[in-house]
Amino acid sequence: MWLDGGPLLGLGEVAEQLGVLCFALALGDRGGDGAYVSIGDFGIAVINGNTDAGRRRFTLAHEIGHHIFADEYSTDLSIADVGSETERRINGFAVHLLLPRGSLTQRWRTLTGEPREKAIRLGVEYRVSWSGLCSQPKNLELVNEGEHRALLAHPPTRADYLELGMGFVEELHPPFVPPSYARAVLGGYRSGKLGANRTIDLLWGSIAKEDLPELAALPIEAYQREFDAPSAEGARRR
Predict the structure, then answer these.
(1) How far apart are CA 210 and CA 191, in angstroms?
(2) Nearest 5°: phi and psi at 73?
């Protein structure tokens, strides 16, 4: 769990600890960014895995916001389209969840180099999109308006990452299913309650049939009970 206020990594697992089960699925270009629904004390978030990695993380942070603010249902066709005060508030929550004020300010001030180099490094460390990263330093008055415009106009290239010796780590790559959900499904398969095809379907194709674990052997007592139990026909005759 996130304890020190630094980069919030492994967001799918963190979401689960906060009561949100996240599924990242390949929904295509028209699938929107994500959706959230409340089911009792838990929430279900579906993220479009076809969006870029930074946007996927921001979308999940946004859906966590819906859960925290007890918004029972939301379909977010575009998280950039904030048409209501609630959506603006939840977007603000998502930004501060992924780019916390204290941590980002301290890290920015410890880095050397021009603002663009700092921003590239922080984008990689905090695993956020370029537009999302550039807005927060401006909000925190770490860059001025001119520097902010310059950052937005010059997003990083692959050469920038190579020169800095850094690479963007992707999270929520589709298909992604919640760890506890995956364990429950595989437990059902091991116990014989779920067949192979149904297991693969429930895991959204995140594993292939040859990846399935060995089935648990049933205890001999289970077979004995099968033979000892009277049949329905025999019971009727008695």
Answers:
(1) 17
(2) -150, 135
In sequence order, the 6+-apart residues with CB closer than 8 A to the CB of 231 are: none
DSSP 112-151: -S-HHHHHHHHHHHHT--HHHHHHHHHHTTSS-HHHHHHH
Distance CA 9, CA 132 (A): 16
Q: Would the pTM of this model clear 0.90, i.e. be above it?
A: no
Strands 34-39, 20-25: pairing is unpaired
Q: Do residues 37 and 72 make contact, with C-beta atoms less than 8 angstroms apart?
A: yes
Residue 75 host element (H or E): strand 73-76
Q: What is the DSSP letter of 211?
A: G
Residue 15's Cβ-count burial label (10 Å; 0-12, 13-18, 19+) is buried
Tell me the per-residue pLDDT of 94-115, one tens digit each, with 9 for 90 and over: 999 999 999 999 999 999 999 9
Tokens 């904030």 belong to: 82
Better-scored residue on pLDDT, 76 or 36: 36
Q: Quick check: bond before 175 cis, omega within 30?
A: yes
Angle at 48 between CA 42 and CA 49, to 5 degrees: 110
**pLDDT for position 168:** 87
